[in-house]
Amino acid sequence: xxxxxxxRWIDIxxxxxxxxxxxxxxxxxxxxxxxxxxxxxxxxxxxxxxxxHSGTHVDAPxxxxxxxxxxxxxxxxxxxxxxxxxxxxxxxxxxxEELRRHQFQTGERIxxxxxxxxxxxxxxxxxxxxxxxxxxxxxxxxxxxxSVIGVDxxxxxxxxxxxxxxxxxxxxxxxxxxxxxxxxxVGAGKYDLICLPLKIKHGDGAxxxxxxxxTVSA
Length: 218
Prior knowledge:
Blueprint: E1 10-11, E2 30-35, E3 45-49, E4 57-59, E5 80-87, E6 93-94, H1 96-100, E7 109-113, E8 132-133, H2 135-142, E9 148-151, H3 163-172, E10 176-179, E11 189-197, E12 205-214
Parallel strand pairs: 5-7, 6-8, 7-9, 9-10
Antiparallel strand pairs: 1-12, 2-3, 4-10, 4-12, 5-11, 11-12
Helix pairs in contact: 2-3
C-alpha cells in the first residue's frame, strides 16, 4: 500500500533503454554512445533514435485528428495538478460498468492502474493481451468531461482491436492521453501529478517524465 502521508515524489515513468519494448511497427529505441569518457574521449555523448510514442509518452490530438492541436500546443498546466489513480480489476478490458462506479468530475485527471503495470518488469517483450479501453468505455469517458487519461501500457486501445477508434473518441473529446506509465509503485487514491512531454514542433506525441506525489489532507 502507498503511504499517503509521505510527501515524496514517485516516478511513474518507464526508463528508456536500448532495445526496450515499443509498439509493433513503430521505430525501435536505439541509444548509441558516439563519444565515451571510458574510451578516452573528451566527453560522453549519445545518439538516440526512437518513435515519438516511445516509453512513457503523451498523445496529442494531432496523432489521430488532422489539423488538431499538436504536442507543442499543449499548455503545461493541463498535465500538472491534482490527479486520481483508479485500480481496474478486469484483466482484459476497462468496461463501462466498472467506470460508472467512480463518479468522474469535469476536468479531472484520471490514471488507470491495471495488471499491465506488471509487464514493465520485463520491458523488452511486447504483450499483445494488455488491458485496454473498449469502444464503449471510451465513448463513456468522452462524455464525462475529464481532461486527462493515463494508462499503464503503450496504448489506450487494444492491439488490433479498435485501437484507432478508441483514440479518436477520446482525443476528439479534448482528452489528453498519457500512455506507457508504470503505476506499480502507487495505489488507488488522490495525488499531485507532473507530466512534461518534450516540446516538439507540430509533434503528434512526445516522450515524457511523469511523477506523482500523494495528496496530504490538511
